[in-house]
Structure formats: C-alpha cells, structure tokens
Amino acid sequence: MATVQTVNGEVECAELGRVLMHEHVFVQNHEFQVNYPETWDDEARTDDAVRKFVDLKASGIDTIVDLTVLGLGRDIRRVQAVAERSPVRIIAATGYYTFADLPTHLRVRGPGRMFGGEEPLLEMFVRDITEGIAGTGIRAGILKCVTDAPGVTPDVERILRSVARAHLQTGVPISTHTDAIAERGLDQQRIFLEEGVDLGRVVIGHSGDTEDLDYLQRLIDAGSYVGMDRFGLDGFMTFEKRVATVAALVERGYASRIVLSHDTSCHSANVPDEYREKNWPNWQFLHITEDVVPALLEAGVTSEQIVTMLEDNPREIFSGASSD
To answer: Angle at which helices 239-251 and 213-221 pack, to 10 degrees?
Structure first.
C-alpha cells in the first residue's frame, strides 16, 4: 500500500480523505521576528492555527499540503506544534521559493560557482525527504519550486533542476508556483522533461489565475495536474471566473487532472491580517467547502467529479498512481 509522510508520521495514501493541495500554515520572516520579537506571539498564533484547522476538519477537509519552503520562512517545529493538536493532517514540503535569485550563501556554492562543490540544493532537498527537516525526523512529502514573471533565471533553473533530480531520487511528487498569465507552467514542464520527470507526478500551481483554456489544456495534455488553487484571491481573478474555468475544464473531460485549494495561511507575514479581512475576505480555509463546491455543483460539476478533484487526484499524486 502506498504511503505519504505527514508531519505526524507516515500514513497510507488511501487515508488522506479530502485534500487541499496548496496551502500554508505560517508564512514568516524569521530575521524580522528575531529583531522585532513583538511582531510574533507563538502561543497565540499556534492556538489560532489549531482553531482554524478544527473548523476546517468540521467542514469536511481531512488533509492539507503545506507548501511553505525556504524563502517563505518554513519553521517545521512551529508547524509540528500545530499538527500535534490539529485534527487535519499536514504534509510538509521541501524546495525553495524565489522569483529570481538565491541568497548569496547558496548562489556562490555549487558546480560552476565561486566556491564550487556539489549542488547544495539537491543535497538539502533529498535530506529533507529521506532523513527529515532540521533534525526533527519530520520528512517532507512533496517538492516545491517557483517560476514567476521574471521567468527562468539562472538561479530559478538551478532550483527547478534540483527539484527534478530530488524527485527522481526519492519518488515524492512536485508542486509548483507559476505566473499563469505568462504561461510559466510550460517552462517548468520543458525543464522537468529534460530531466526525465514523468509530468504525471507534477502539479502546475496557480493555474486557476487564468481563463485561457487552451493554455490549461496544453499543461494537462502534457500529463500534469493543474492547481486551481487560489480560490479566495478575488483580486487576482473573480470567484465567478475561477468557478467557470474549473467547470469548463471538467466539461472538457479533465476532472481527473484538477486539484483545488486556496494558497492561504493561518498567518502570513507578507499580508497584513487587516488587509486580508477587508479586501480578500474569502481567502480563508473554509471557502472551498462553503462556497466553491456549491457553486461548482450549480455550474454542472457532479458530486463524483468533486470527489475526483478533492480526494482521488491527491491520493493518486502521492501514490504515483494514475486514473487515466
């Protein structure tokens, strides 16, 4: 039986239940918190996260994938403190988040770099998956990488290729961040194919930020899943357009290649809580179960297709199976 690593240990993929495939527990800036400690209350933030996940479980969601990696302030011990009290399973990720450049200490190391040596990114990612993160023994269950508006910069390409090679060594799936308007998912697929990755093990993230069905169909026809995973970010694209895009893809026969999520968090240092509440009130964990699923059903998506997107596809992504 195929298994997946969660923050609380290994579980069978068949037990994942309903899964939100692209979320975050905490997006942090540790340097800022260390120098201005009054900006972070660990106990209050942990309690708040647990409350949110208790409500999420009650809404019918069983598992989230926390795609917080280096560059977004991953702190696995803080996530562990939440997971120990959360009824929702949390799957941790490894990888690196940057739109353009790596920090200097990584940029100057590796093949062809100032100080040479082996590629440090690959070693980091594989160790997180096979041994555990930060000495905790908590193993990452998925890889994360980013290609945004700046495109495939030299450092972004290093990350993409290291993620691909870590995937080939460990077998864990890949999930990405993209700028869908710039069609960056195609760049990612090209590099992954050059590295020998089966695109059926890849989720091209933030694909729901575009209505371009031809672009989305190209990603799917190449083998990848598409992440319709920013529900609630209505300032990027309206709720109605996001729902209509998913419904149109389902009508084309692609329910088996779609996953749903919000890309939200219990707390983000990058988005003030008061701004989120005022401008993006739907950008919270209950939006899919309370609003999106009913709207998709009204748009003609069947209950069985909802199960496919929220249960079957995540299980197959982590197990390496395919519904096709």
So the answer is: 50
Q: How far apart are CA 140 and CA 69, in angstroms?
A: 10
Q: What is the tens place of the pLDDT at every residue in 126-138?
A: 999 999 999 999 9
C-alpha to C-alpha distance for 274 and 272, rounded to whole angstroms: 5
* Helices 184-194 + 213-221 axis angle, to 10: 10
Taking only the tens place, the pLDDT of each residue in 75-107 is: 999 999 999 999 999 999 999 999 999 999 999
- Other Cβ atoms less than 10 A from the Cβ of 210: the count is 20
pLDDT tens track for 10-54: 999 999 999 999 999 999 999 999 999 999 999 999 999 999 999
Alpha helices (H) along 60-153: 76-83, 104-107, 120-130
* Distant-in-sequence, close-in-space partners of 233: CB < 8 Å, separation ≥ 6: 209, 262, 263, 280, 283
- Cβ atoms within 10 Å of 139's Cβ, excluding its own: 23
**First-last CA distance in the chain:** 19
Check residue 324 and give its pLDDT: 42
Could you tell me the domains of the chain? 3-319 (3.20.20.140)
Tell me, what DSSP letter sits at residue 13? Answer: G
306: how many CB neighbours lie within 10 A of its CB?
Answer: 19
- Cβ within 8 Å of residue 247, ≥6 positions away: 296, 299, 300, 301
Rg (CA), the chain: 19
